Amino acid sequence: MTSAAVPAWLPHVRRGVALSLLAALNVLLLIVWQWKVLTQLGPGRDMDALVAGMVLPNFATAVVGGSLVNVLLPMLSAAPMAERSRMRAELSATLLALFAGVAAVLALLAPLWVPLIAPGLMGQDRGAVVHLARIQLVGLALSGVLTVQSVARQAEGSFVRVEAAQVAASLGGLAALVWAAPRFGATGVAVSAVLRVVLQLLLLLSTPRASGRLVLASDTLRELWRRVRPLLGASLYYKSDVVLDRLLASLAPVGALSLYHVALQIISSGQQVIQRGIVAPAIRDMSAARATHGDLALRIRLRRSLTVVMLLSGLATVVLVATGYPLLLGVFGRGAVRPEQVRMLWVLLLLLSGVWLGGVAGLLLSSSFYVLGDTFTPARIGVIGFTLAIGLKLVAFRAFGLPGLAAAASAYYLMNAGLIGVALGRRLRLARVET
């Protein structure tokens, strides 16, 4: 068969299969990571301190890094190659400086904010949280430039390289974890996590065609700030659900914070498979299709991608309900973890299934707004949804404890996805009428 005879859709299928396999391997490695940490430390004070120490670094990464991804991918995908190289170099240098400065300030002020985000941890536990948080803030310092490098590779169509780099970095970090965790406990875990970020960044870096320099005022940064500003401001508010959830979980009995974190990490790992294997390529394809053929092409690709996303997510939920407990017992029911703690982990995963379903659907629907150049609408919906969720989570946790918090989190994500879907449908229908 000649190259001319190859169907147009075949390269996309091959890419999708490769991305899905690599993303699935990444998820497996993340689950192995969680397994090693949980069985080594156990759901107790040390792991609670580790989880509490990563709350603010993870929150900052989710707010700023997540906002940057949503804005940078459409921007870089639409830019010519030479312009993309210049943008990549300038953004990398500037964001490295900004993120390093934020991380340094947070490390200095750690004794002040730790008691606020983990009020249930007292005395020496708080000192451990400060120590572990400062280690993990090194990862935050590097996350800005890592985001730029990853998104730039995706904008070039190198999705497979991005996934392969994460696989290699996860393997290196996991090897460090296996060696360090038995010797240094939670400190070894924190250092291994930072090493994983460093390895991933080194694997994605390339020699830029334009000199990488700190640029505080340029057309690229002004446009980035214009697009990211409404999303960043709103994300700072509604993505604080990470902080709220951990704050409430720290008030539960010892070990509850650890179990809730592991459950959310498992959910997040599955979402990353969908995001990297389907959503990220879909954003690039929707951006290119809309630029060439208009909103109708965007609608067609969105509908196709959303169908695949929901089918895969629904299948994963069915598997969790049917076989989740024996699988979790076989994986986590050893070391420092007791069987009743594994059952609680399974119950939390079931109650958090709405986070899984609503999260992946909401991500794809929100990304469609970003392709349209509208970051305000999903940000406004996120603010409204989280405002309602605050009261719901407080009431549910007070009435039912940790299971109530998990159920409330699911309700929030499903509601948010539904509101974004309604708004997007209206936006696309109006655009069709106008044309």
Describe the structure.
The chain is globular. The chain is mainly α and 435 residues long. It has one domain (10-434). The chain has helices at residues 10-41, 45-78, 81-108, 110-117, 124-155, 159-184, 186-204, 219-238, 241-250, 256-293, 295-332, 339-351, 353-371, 376-400, 402-434. The chain is built from 15 helices and no strands.
Please provide a brief summary of the model:
This protein is mostly helical and 435 residues long. It has helices at residues 10-41, 45-78, 81-108, 110-117, 124-155, 159-184, 186-204, 219-238, 241-250, 256-293, 295-332, 339-351, 353-371, 376-400, 402-434. The mean pLDDT is 82.
> Quick one: overall form?
globular
Percent strand: under 5%
Q: The biggest beta sheet, please?
A: none
Helix content: over 70%
Mean pLDDT: 82
Order of helices and strands: HHHHHHHHHHHHHHH
Strand element count:
0
> How many domains comprise the coordinates?
1
Low-pLDDT sequence parts: none
Radius of gyration: 21 Å
Cα distance spanning the termini:
42 Å
Overall structural class, as computed from helix and strand content, comes to mainly alpha
What is the number of helical segments per DSSP (H or I, 4+ residues)?
A: 15
